[in-house]
Specification:
Chain lengths: 289, 169
């Protein structure tokens, strides 16, 4: 299957980009590994400290108006006490992957920052959805990461689409075709499969690769993460953070509903909370700038 | 606290989710971006040259009364009356008002649960019918994202979506 993004797929129109995507942001693996085994924030700080660029950005964030510190924050330790360990980890994860996701995808009609904004919205929605469903902390944190990375495959499938515009994808706006089906028909694989293949090179836990692969078909895996991200993706699309030609041309799978125990009242609540969290999400989105 | 904007210093007034804007200055336009299942509701009195736009997220405030108390503009049933009242307070007259609507798209599958766009539009139709107000033009449904723009000088409403030509309602 790995060969598909190197040789077999018609989406492989840009070898340099493929290589860029395949290289793993090292800090992401380390943070996720640490979080999974023993979420001790002091050790997480030690990992962050080794990355000078991310450390600088975290200190900038902790000193920004959004967190209005009483006195200047000059160390990661005081940043943690000021803005909280979960917030620090979310910021580090976003900083680690923004360079790969913050790009326009003309083949999908997505402009500058559209993919990144959609990814951040989906990550927040997945995290909140996991909390509403009373999932454990590790599942919630994994849902955030998968939400952020779920569409990374589009960065590659876009390479084919922008060179060979697929008329059904354009007309998805009119005839209601499903974007995943159109990708499979024309590229021989879809962005979910492609994304999973990219993430396999990062050596992240299998649960992350699996959820990315099945985020449009959550019934094909036992993992609840795929269902959570499936619904979080839908929440982002429904609330206008989908973007592009295919903004809402995807199916919502009943399985995701059953697996998560989510009901319509919870979903409405999620949509409202996302709207209320808009300024926080926009701030996180701005990290990529 | 409601998110209400009346003519700001910008030529283009942007309306976010759960917000509305009213304007009576002719060199202005009101715009709302990226309507998914949300509805953009534009009202305009061509005699008084008063226009307004509301961007609602959900059909019915009774789902979450607490939230509705904080921001009634998130819901069709509590947002629409406030839009009209705000326009009346700026001199608009009910009989003159032209209503145009965009958005209300839906994803597919599990329709009874997630067809929020369709429910939003039904809720709007109900409240307008009860108040004897007609929708003059609409572009709702489907699976596309829409941006809606109201020109205060002319009352023209334009819609655009990625990959599609701009059109006027």
């Amino acid at each position: 299957m790995r060969e598909t993004i190197n040789q077999g797929s018609r989406s492989n129109a840009n070898p340099k980009l493929t290589e860029q995507l395949k290289s793993s942001p090292a800090i992401l693996n380390q943070i996720l590994e640490k979080y999974r085994n023993d979420p001790d924030i002091d050790e997480v700080i030690e990992i962050i400290r080794l990355d000078a660029e991310i450390t600088t950005r975290i200190l900038e964030i902790a000193n920004s108006a959004a967190f209005s510190p009483g006195s200047p924050v000059t160390s990661l330790k005081s940043a943690v006490s000021n803005i909280g360990s979960n917030e620090i980890i979310r910021n580090v994860i976003c900083l680690a992957v923004s360079g790969k996701l913050d790009r326009p995808l003309s083949g999908y009609g997505m402009e500058d920052h559209d993919l990144w904004r959609h990814s951040v919205y989906t990550a927040y929605a997945a995290e909140r959805l996991g909390q509403i469903c009373s999932m454990d902390d590790e599942t919630v944190q994994t849902a955030f990461t998968v939400g952020l990375l779920h569409d990374i495959g589009k960065v590659l499938t876009n390479e084919y689409l922008k060179r060979h515009p697929v008329s059904p994808l354009i007309s998805v706006t009119k005839d209601g075709a499903d974007v995943i089906q159109i990708e499979r028909n024309n590229l021989f694989m879809d962005h979910a499969q492609t994304g999973a293949e990219i993430i396999r090179y990062w050596n992240l836990p299998e649960i992350i690769t699996d959820a990315i692969r099945y985020h449009h078909a959550p019934g094909n895996t036992q993992s609840p993460i795929a269902s959570i991200v499936h619904l979080a993706d839908a929440a982002a699309h429904i609330s206008g953070h989908g973007y592009g030609f295919s903004a809402m041309a995807s199916h919502i799978d009943q399985v995701a509903w059953e697996r998560t125990g989510f009901n319509s009242e919870m979903f409405y609540l999620l949509l409202m909370e996302l709207q209320i969290m808009e300024s926080e999400i926009e701030r996180m989105m701005g990290l990529a700038r | 606290m409601m998110n209400v904007v009346r003519c700001s210093s910008e030529n283009r007034i942007v309306v976010g989710i759960g917000e509305m804007a009213l304007c009576d200055e002719e060199n202005r336009e009101i715009v709302t971006f990226s309507l998914g299942s949300c509805l953009g509701i534009s009202i305009y009195d061509p005699v008084m040259k008063v226009g307004g736009m509301l961007h609602v997220l959900l059909p019915d405030s009774t789902i979450q009364k607490d939230r509705a108390a904080v921001n009634p503009l998130m819901f069709v049933d509590t947002g629409v009356p406030r839009l009209f009242r705000a326009a009346y307070s700026m001199g608009a007259v009910k009989e003159n008002i032209i209503v145009k609507v965009a958005g209300g798209a839906d994803m597919r599958g599990a329709r009874n649960i997630f067809n929020i766009g369709e429910r939003n539009f039904q809720s709007l139709q109900n409240i307008l019918r009860r108040n004897n107000v007609n929708i003059h033009k609409q572009e709702v449904g489907g699976s596309i994202s829409r941006t809606m723009n109201l020109n205060i000088a002319t009352g023209k409403v334009s819609i655009n979506s990625p990959g599609m030509q701009n059109r006027f309602l």
